[in-house]
Every structure is written in C-alpha cells, then in structure tokens.
Amino acid sequence: MPEKERALHQLHLDIDARVDNIRENNSDWLCGKGCDTCCRRLAEVPKLSAAEWALLHEGLAALAPEQLEGISRKVAALAVQSSRPVVCPLLDQLTGACPVYAQRPVACRSYGFYVQRDLGLYCHEIESLTAQGELADVVWGNHDSIDQRLTELGESRALTEWFAAWAR
Q1: R_g of the chain computed on alpha carbons
Q2: Dihedral, 83, 37, 95, 54 alpha carbons, nearest 10
C-alpha cells in the first residue's frame, strides 16, 4: 500500500475510533444513517486531498453510468453556483444517502464528531443539545489536527476541480 494511501487509511481508523466511542456512549447521537442535514447545508464546495480524491474516484468509477451522469450534472452546476449553502453533489436527495459512502472524504467522516469553533465548522444541532446539557459528556475531536494530517496527503482541491480534471 503506498504511503499516502496508508496514511489516509490510518486517519480513517482514528476518526472511526472517535466516532464509535461517541456513538457507544450516546445512543441518540444525531449523526448517522438517515441524517443528511450537513450534506444539504455545506458552507463551501468540499475540498479533498489527492489521496482522498483517489479513493473517491474509485467509488465514483464503480457507480452505474446513469448515476454517475447525474452526479456529473450536479458537480457542473455547483462549479458555477455562487449562492450558499451548498448541497453536496454526491448526495442522493431522494434517499438522503451517499452512493460513495465507503469512499467519502474525511470532512464527511469527521463532521459532527470533530469541531473547528473558530471557523464555525460544527453541527449546530449537536451544539444546541450540548448547550442544553443533553450531551454534556461529549469530547469533540479537534479538527485542526485532522487538517494537519490532511496536508500530508497531497494537494488539496475543490471537489469540482478534481471532477473536472477527471472528466476531460
């Protein structure tokens, strides 16, 4: 396994360990299958490292042609969209599911379990429950440490840029 792929795999394992711990201790945690709130209200087009794109590319390449075409249309529209929030172009809006869930980027894996308070990058619904004392014992992960590890995984580009380069 190449070094960057190994580093991404380890990062996924570390994130999964925190997510599993939070879910084990909080059975009513909002983030999980069926919750797509964050996917429908992104602050910006997701950015991915080269290693994340390589993994996501594998998932995209395995999709049915009509499904990939639909995603391609949404990505192209997103590339010229200036309004916010952004809806993830990978989201199947009818089912609320991600067709490339196993290959999803780190930002998707960590959202709701890690926080960047200075940038306002966290689930506000979970923060509201925390403020009300319902999730008082939760230890959020520091997303700055995740970002530091991502810098080691190659160039970072917007999903729309990676996709455009692939589609050529």
Answers
A1: 16
A2: 70
Q: What is the pLDDT of residues 81-116, one digit of tens each?
A: 999 889 999 999 899 999 999 999 998 998 888 777
Residue 69: domain span: 3-167
The predicted model scores a pTM of 0.88
* Cα 20 from Cα 25, distance rounded (Å): 9
Rounded CA separation 72/15 (Å): 29
Say if residues 71 and 63 touch (Cβ distance below 8 Å): yes
Number of domains comprising the chain = 1
What one-character DSSP code corresponds to residue 104?
-
For residues 110 and 113, what is the distance between their CA atoms, to the nearest angstrom? 5
Torsion sign over Cα 77, 79, 85, 91 = positive
- Whose structure tokens read 């590319």? 57
